[in-house]
Amino acid sequence: MTHDVRPETASSRTSPDASSRVDAATEADSSAGTGADIEVDDATAEALGKLSEALETTERARGHLYSFHQLTGHADLQLDEAVELLRAAGHPEMADMVTRELIGLDVIPDRWTFQIVEEYEDGYHAAFTGVERRIRERLAGGRRHLHEARMKKRRQG
């Protein structure tokens, strides 16, 4: 779950009743941004919630790509030390093998990891975020996390 910090509203500041504050906060969550006047039924909110969850999964995958990129780059740089140590230990032919066959090797044909990350971001990830945003704008006036806002309202009473 994410925590969305919103500015206090007049009703949340002046209402001594906790449930009134929850209602005001939920109202602010559901009416924030453009398109506050668009009514969103439960089935649509659930569908938008699943689309948002799928987008969040791609964000996690993108993070793993960055880990893959950094770890692979680090491994490649560690090979420099391995080559030095092999030479120092009297194994120049093995050092040459590492240099020739591993250092700077493409991880897939014609691609280093940074290129994979860039192509993911510019292709799949950009398309995914664009489609999610257009659907959310059309069906919910751009409002995000409707499903979670409704869950918050239900769980907090």
A few lines on this structure:
The protein is mainly alpha-helical and 157 residues long.
Structure description:
- This protein is mostly helical and 157 residues long.
- It has helices at 10-14, 18-31, 42-88, 92-101, 113-140, 146-156.
- Helix 3 (42-88) packs antiparallel against helix 4 and helix 3 (42-88) packs antiparallel against helix 5 (113-140).
- The longest helix is centred in the middle third of the chain and has 47 residues, at 42-88.
Keywords:
157 residues, 0% strand, mainly alpha, disordered N terminus, elongated
Chain-wise SSE layout:
Layout: H1 10-14, H2 18-31, H3 42-88, H4 92-101, H5 113-140, H6 146-156
Helix pairs in contact: 2-6, 3-4, 3-5
Q: Indicate the percent of residues in helices.
A: over 70%
Poorly predicted spans: 1-34
Shape: elongated
Look at the helices and sheets and give the structural class. Answer: mainly alpha
- Strand composition percent: under 5%
N-to-C series of helices and strands:
HHHHHH
What is the CA-atom radius of gyration, in angstroms?
Answer: 25 Å
Q: Report the mean per-residue pLDDT as an integer.
A: 83
Distance between the termini: 18 Å
**Tally of alpha and pi helices:** 6
Number of DSSP E strands? 0
For the largest beta-sheet, the strand count, sense and barrel status come to: none
